[in-house]
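User: I'm new to structure prediction. If I give you an amino acid sequence, what do you actually give back? Let's try with this one:
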Amino acid sequence: KYGQTESIVEDIPAFINKITELENRPAKYWVAHSWGGVLMNSAFARFPQYIDDVNACVYFGSKRSLYNHHPKKYLQGNLIWYMLAPLLAKKYGFLPAKKLKWGSDDESIKSHFQSMQWAKRKPWVDSDDGFNYTKALSQLTLPPTLHIAGVRDKALAQPIDIEKFMNESGQGIQTMNIYGRKQGHKFDYDHINMLTHPKARDDQFIDLLNWFETHSAMN
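Assistant: Good question. You get back a string of structure tokens that encode the predicted 3D arrangement of the chain. For your 219 residues, that looks like this:
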């Protein structure tokens, strides 16, 4: 029964409260990878009071819906995630993503169902209570956000997917940088090694620090 809704309305607030307790102030910089950016912006939509506490965000390969037409998207998205995954989740009572080598974490039926609906270009609306995240965010100015895209991230977060996510993420400063050799970087990054490759320290991690430094004086 655990899903996206619980992540947004229970877990993220709990994390923020714990950080505030430990540090005597809320977290001023938020970093997310992939679906984490969707959850974080969903939290901003639900709890706009967090916005003023945050100086800046950086999202690595974050998209909500998949708009690209790469063959890998149809394999990983349409065939595996939309067709096979629901059948296996029903069979096992959860999605055994780790066993199947489809992801780093297993997932509940509800969590998979909710994320699948959003990834299918359906409205950004909560299936539990009908909360409309797009509508809520359209009235808000979110913290300055740097979006990081990898040139070899063909299936899960191409620039068009990230742009669509940016367009429905309210007002405020949003920038997307694409990372690859043709763009002057040291490696052609994909959805995972944009975080894990040693060269990332000289490319996107430097830009992350500079982004945070640029916006450090806000609060």
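You can read the tokens as a compact description of the fold. Here is one thing that stands out. Strands lie at 29-33, 56-60, 94-95, 107-108, 145-150, 174-179.
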